[in-house]
Amino acid sequence: DHPAAEVRRRAIEALQWFAAKALDTLTPFLADADEDVRTSAMTAVEQALEETESETAKLGYIESLFQVRGACDTDGLAMLGGQLKGLSDGAAVAAAAVRVIEANRDPAAAKEMREVYEFVTGEPYTTPDAARRWLRESAEAPE
């Protein structure tokens, strides 16, 4: 909460040493008023996510950010969406995308999650019912 952006950026640099353990502490910086602070926070979060071995943990963290209106700017949402597109459990990612879209707390987050849904499923997001049908069918499909 320090008024000087440089101090907030230095705090982010220090938090980077803690990797995934610092994700919750880094989160507020994603919505900082200073662009350089936001950029530093995005870099730190991206690195921490890359070091997080559990895809379930990554998905949970990213989905929670998408559920909070204004948790990060559009660049941050795009970075997080890219992280989701790299996860191997497409059905879990699609389910998270549907939850965010249906919650409709943040139009920018919903837009990004539509892109994630479409990337993962190969289908356009049309309605919640169609998305739930895709999720049911993917859960029933043999591996």
Describe the protein's architecture and organization:
- With 143 residues, this protein is mostly helical.
- It has eight helices and no strands.
- α1 (5-15) runs parallel beside α3, α6 (90-103) packs antiparallel against α7 (107-121) and α6 runs antiparallel to α8 (128-140).
- It starts with a helix and ends with a helix.
- The relative contact order is 0.11.
Percentage of β-strand residues: under 5%
Low-confidence stretches: none
Oligomer: single chain
The number of helical elements comes to: 8
Described by strand count, sense and barrel closure, the largest sheet is: none
Tell me the distance between the termini: 49 Å
| Secondary-structure element series | HHHHHHHH
User: Which range best describes the helical content: under 10%, 10-25%, 25-40%, 40-55%, 55-70% or over 70%?
Assistant: 55-70%
The helix-and-strand class reads mainly alpha
The beta-strand count equals 0
Describe the global form. elongated
Instruction: Work out the radius of gyration.
Output: 16 Å
- Give the overall pLDDT as a whole number: 92
